[in-house]
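#struct-help
A.M.: can someone run this one for me? Single chain, 326 residues.
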Amino acid sequence: MAVKTYIAAITEALDLALERDENVLVFGEDVGKNGGVFRATDGLNAKYGDERVFNTPLAESGIGGLAIGLTTQEFRPIMEIQFLGFIYEVMDSISGQMARNRFRFHGTKTFPIVIRSPYGGGTHTPEMHADNLEGMLAQQPGIRVVMPSSPADAKGLLLASIESNDPVIFLENLKLYRSIKGEVPEGYYTTPLDKANLVKEGRDLSIITYGGMVPLSMKAAEILEKEGISVEVLDLRTVSPIDIEAIGKTVEKTGRVVVAQEAQRQAGIGANVMSEISERFVMSLNAPIGRVSAPDSIYPFAVAENDWLPQVDDIVKKVKEVLDYD
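D.P.: on it. Structure tokens below:
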């Protein structure tokens, strides 16, 4: 298997989808000849032309409306929202239309729309570019929210999302784009949606996490391993709907849990995971559930970003706190 960056895996998935199905279209702000602000669509316009990979006006609401209309003509649109913080402009299309249309048409019509967007901190972006808004999006019934944490999953989950006949919001961690590399299977393959991935097995405590916090949780687990503490790491991958079965299995195995997210404490999906554990698996817990998150404040300016974001040390500290509970 070839070793690729996170963003290269995404580009490859888009290329394969465009090659496989002529009804797949890619569009958004600057995704054409420019290849996107992060070059995720680099080379695709030259290969497939302006009718398959093209720029849109700087109007997110128009991008969403276009995607909905294209599905009525048998197309499978992949729309890009340049930064997740800009998604408010298209929320009517997402929650008012895309999420409801299968229900409205009694399942007789499909709406295979993929909404790609980068999110997350650690790269010193301007205001409203790094917000973690997955919690808000996960509360929209009828919308699937996918957040890969590795190059292999980025490719496989994106291809699965494009194959889905339901709308999928596919969130790509900005810091991971070029900071991580991993082995990626060659050719076309899909990774199952709605299924968590047990990244690391352990016996003493489970870290349940997703997206950009998975690599940090793995680093924390390595540090703790040197101290004789065996930590299990579960990557949710799809955060709506969450994989209740996988969560229950790890909780029942270790009896102690830390939920880690980059989003603010009141945001993200950590609270939902904790609630489901408390309702379904409370008798398997040997200690209160720990939580690692950003503080409940507006995302700071870049100069304070690293002080505000949760770090590896925060995860290590919280794991020890949960393990010390009697």
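A.M.: thanks! DSSP finds twelve helices and 14 strands in the chain.
D.P.: also worth noting: The longest strand covers residues 257-264.
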